[in-house]
Design a protein that fits this description.
This protein is an alpha+beta fold and 107 residues long. It has helices spanning 24-30, 66-72; strands at 2-7, 13-18, 50-53, 83-85, 98-101. The mean pLDDT is 96. The chain binds FE2/S2 (inorganic) cluster (FES).
Length: 107
């Protein structure tokens, strides 16, 4: 298990335990994190699991795939540097301490 902090749209901080192997979207959904809709269920086909990676974690994340890049174009106010789709981020031990901001709204 690793620890992930979600900053919900209202600024509320939620620290959750995340199982290695799940995606960040699945962790958010399982813990009832507000603001992540994940309408396509993780198929990288909706962009409603858009999140912002906080601080220096950006440089420690895996690269976006081309399809994730394309889908981020449909997200609400994507940030070229920090935006990711949570369903495309597998939880690994390397992500212990990760901090994520959830946008004010999706699409
Ligand atoms: Fe639809 Fe991530 S859940 S793109």
């Amino acid at each position: 298990m690793v620890e992930v902090t979600f900053i919900e749209p209202d600024g509320n901080r939620r620290v959750v335990s995340a199982s290695v192997g799940l995606t960040l979207m699945e962790v958010a959904r399982n813990d009832g994190i507000r603001g992540i809709e994940a309408e396509c269920g993780g198929a990288c086909a909706c962009s409603t699991c858009h999140v912002y990676i906080a601080g220096d974690w950006v440089d420690r994340m895996s690269e976006r795939t081309p399809i994730e890049e394309d889908m981020l174009d449909f997200a609400h106010e994507p940030d070229p540097a920090t935006s990711r789709l949570a369903c495309q981020i597998p939880i690994s031990e390397d992500l212990d301490g990760l901090i994520i901001s959830v946008p004010q709204r999706q699409c």
